[in-house]
Amino acid sequence: MPVTTSLARARRKVVFKRTPTTLSSARMATMENRATDIAVDEEVVSHLADPSVRGSRLPIDALYTSEPPIIDPLVTATSTAQDRTLDQCLPLLKAADSNIEYNANGAPRLHRERHIKYLETTIGNLPAPYVGADASRPWCIYWALNALSLLGADVSKFRESLIATATHMQNKTGGFGGGFGQTSHLATTYAMVLSLVIVGGESAYEVIDRRAMWKWLSSLKQPDGGFQMSLGGEVDVRGAYCAAVIISLLNIPLNLSSDSPASAAGLADLYTGLAGYVQRCQTFEGGISAKPDAEAHGAYAFCALGCLAILDAPHRIIPRTLNVPRLISWLSSRQYAPEGGFSGRTNKLVDGCYSHWVGACWPLIQASLQAPSQPAHDSGPQRESIPEFLSFYDREGLIRYIMSCGQDHSSKGGMRDKPSHRSDAYHTCYVLSGLTSAQHVVSAVLAEDEYVANMAWKVSPYSDPQLFDEQDRLNPTDPVYAIPQGKREEVMTYFLSKPGF
Amino acid sequence: MPPKNNKGGAKAKDSSAKQENDVVKTQTVFERAQAAYDLTRPPYDKEREELGGLHALSTVEKTAYANWFCTAPDELAFLSKKAQKELWKQVNETNRPLRRGQIDKPKPDQWGKDKLGRNIGDYTVQQYEQRIEKQGQLTCLKALGRSFASKRLYASKGLVDSSTGEVYKLTEEDIKAEKQHRKEMAALKKDLYGEKMGPYSTDPEWDDVVPVPQMEPEGALAAIAYPEDYAESMSYLRAVMAANEYSPRCLKLTEHIISMNPAHYTVWLYRFANIQHLDIPLLDEIEWLNGVALDYLKNYQIWHHRQLLLEHYYPTIAGSPDEVKRFARSERAFIMEMFAEDAKNYHVWSYRQHLTRKLGMWENEEHGELDSIEGMINDDVRNNSAWSHRFFLVFSNPRYSTPDSHATEADPKVPADIIDREIKYAQAKIKLAPQNQSPWNYLRGVLVKGGRELGSVQAFVEMYVQNIGNEETEQVHSSHALEQLADIYEEAGDKEKADLCWKRLGEKWDRIRLGYWEWKRRSLKAASS
């Protein structure tokens, strides 16, 4: 792609200082142009990316470096916490730290090698203080493998170890626990199944006992349509999402086993009433809560949309199930300035992990608004059909937050919630996941094979304006399954070829 | 016959007794053995060894050595009577000692190594003797343990002690003594061999359980180097869970594991199963749980456990309104204690919603939630969790709301005075800090529930927004007001004004959401064309 090559040439390292002027009018102009003349876009981008035109360095838009235009004088616990967050983010956003290497746009570079090194330690042998993670080891494995894949590191070397680890954690009664001898749990099963899908290959897929999984899932299905996280565990929208992911990836038969509590309540199959359950989780604010009656929360919004996108094509099921305008308004309110990152709830602080939870909602929202276009091969030669709206949210703001505040700039590496927090595997996975979704435009196209999925995704690199170096682009991610693009099709194709168990 | 040695031990006689004592104290085990070995052989053999061979000895000593070698009983047998006679004659002439003992030459590592990998041969004699004594104690304790086990076995079978004529009986003292013995054994084992006996393997109460240790496959990912205490208790947990045991000791075991890893959902679920089987009093469990909750503020499992407890016990108090009220108040008191640490804790709020429904703590009830929530909103008007709870409290009240009414749709059953009251409440709070999104979201939610037009609050909204689009005089005190105003214009069909509001939001008042405002503008244009 021409855009890619010209940008690669434009790579440069500049130590950046704050400049007071803003780009607001230029930004508006770009926005206007985008609507009227799409063809100009690529030209504008290449133009901007050309070092001779760009000059020494671009100033950072004041939007990302100064306090918002309206601030109430009233001080409460919430405003105090918000002020503290701005204090720690602003120096980084202003590119004021001389110890950090910035690119021409005043954004720090991605410390790719450090993050890879850090992630590999998180699935190695962990010292005794990690005992608190003893019930979440499948999560640790998924976070590391997914993040490593997004970073382009080789994860196939973990295949044998993963197979041994997963085999050990699988229960005869179906599903995976947090470790050997632990009760099966939907969250740890979700994480383990995704891990196996990420390393891929028949030997990894075949670890999973699908018949036992089907029986176990049937036992978790509730009369109200939702799923318990484990036998005797809580019912929430995570359960709905995790179950839908597992069922669809592994081609689990939908009919309920005879001993399922939902079967006794007259439900037809594993998906019956699931969309209704999700619907009951939408709140007056427009967002989605963990369970009915609770507060709207970004992570649950993702679970809700992800679950629905599995049940049916997004443009059919999402408008049918949720109040989409209110949801979009609430989702859009999750992004704050000057931080640029997302918060999880109204009046809560930005946190890097919502780069994924909220960030991944956007392609699904986009897909819910219009019927999918024809698959790419039908639309002729490699002409990009850029969607009418590249973004509901400010990609530049999010990328700036991730690169400046979301990275641990020390030699430790890894990604974090915000500058005052230490990096960890969870944040590394979800911040990077958010970064890749900001770096790519993902749109729904008609699935070539109706059986593989309700939708397929067309991914094109996002580069308007190009504020990260091309070498800092990550591999694209699947917006529903949160695994590298392509892995979903591989596993679905494999299990579709296996009739029955 | 070998001649008597006249010179041996001359040196020892010279040393004073005190010096000898000091030597013994600082001498190592190996040195002592070596010294004893040296006493069993002639000095020239030692000399030969130290100097590295026979060639280093004087002629006389070489002869003496050869004689000494040949006078060994095995060698003598090969010599003729005459040769033997010659040999003895020469031995006498050389006049050198001819000692021979039955001790093998000591090797420095023959005593093995201790728990730290130190050669026991390098111990001082004193240290070595202490070690031997401890080993003796351990043997005695093991013997006592065996007799305890036999006695317990006999007692369980009701056998009669022939020496007393009474049935074997295991007394409290016996168990107490055995516990003490095991503690001593554990200390000795750790001291001597570095072997650790955890609290379960040393407790006779757990003797009948065969622990199931965690076997990690080779190269397991994210394998944790468990602290020994944790590894041992988990081994016992796996064993009792597999046996479906529900007992007080299992309850204690779960408590122990939770104190080390409160995120262990398996242990929590198993704990609840024990509580159900043993019918543990609710308040005992709640009291313990409160302490754990305050120690681990972010923990999720605690709150699911509490919800399970609530479900389990509610039927027992449902018949008594007073008890329900009392319980509601004490739960709320604890919830408020949690909120003092983190007023937006999602799990605690979710539990609060569940509790409200279960115990009917609606706004109009005597033990209702409204005052408490108003207090929280007064403390921090930006606490969206409190606003969210208020919405639930007001609009899910079964006394007047439609049971399955969706949060984003009108509920005609909610009385108008309640809608009015809530509009006023939200507006009063907006006045305190107009750029606070929580009450704006709340206000809109109330209007929707009441089936009212957004335009019904236009005058209020316009207090925060003036002269939109006029560069000189434009004033916006709340971007949320401007957003609401745009929606009011859209609702009224005034597209140009709505478009202008969104345009100004994207240009100036809420620029980070530019993409969203532009989408609103375009959607409206598309709808009208």
From TrEMBL, chain A:
Cofactor list: Zn(2+)
Prenyltransferase alpha-alpha toroid domain mapped to chain residues: 110-483
Pfam family, one: Prenyltrans
Keywords from the UniProt entry: Metal-binding, Prenyltransferase, Repeat, Transferase, Zinc
Binding partners and assembly: Heterodimer of an alpha and a beta subunit.
Entry EC number(s): 2.5.1.58
Family label: Belongs to the protein prenyltransferase subunit beta family.
Entry protein name: Protein farnesyltransferase subunit beta
Lineage: Eukaryota, Fungi, Dikarya, Ascomycota, Pezizomycotina
Function: Catalyzes the transfer of a farnesyl moiety from farnesyl diphosphate to a cysteine at the fourth position from the C-terminus of several proteins. The beta subunit is responsible for peptide-binding.
Catalytic activity reported: L-cysteinyl-[protein] + (2E,6E)-farnesyl diphosphate = S-(2E,6E)-farnesyl-L-cysteinyl-[protein] + diphosphate
Signal peptide positions on this chain: none
InterPro entries (UniProt xref): FTB (IPR026872), PGGT1B-like (IPR045089), Prenyltrans (IPR001330), Terpenoid_cyclase/PrenylTrfase (IPR008930)
From TrEMBL, chain B:
Biased composition (Basic and acidic residues): 11-23
E.C. designation(s): 2.5.1.58, 2.5.1.59
Pfam families: PPTA
Gene3D superfamilies, A to Z: Protein prenylyltransferase
Coiled coil: none
Annotated spans, Disordered: 1-23
UniProt keyword annotation of Membrane present: no
Superkingdom of source: Eukaryota
Keywords from the named record: Magnesium, Prenyltransferase, Repeat, Transferase
Family: Belongs to the protein prenyltransferase subunit alpha family.
Protein name, as recorded: Protein farnesyltransferase/geranylgeranyltransferase type-1 subunit alpha
Lineage start: Eukaryota, Fungi, Dikarya, Ascomycota, Pezizomycotina
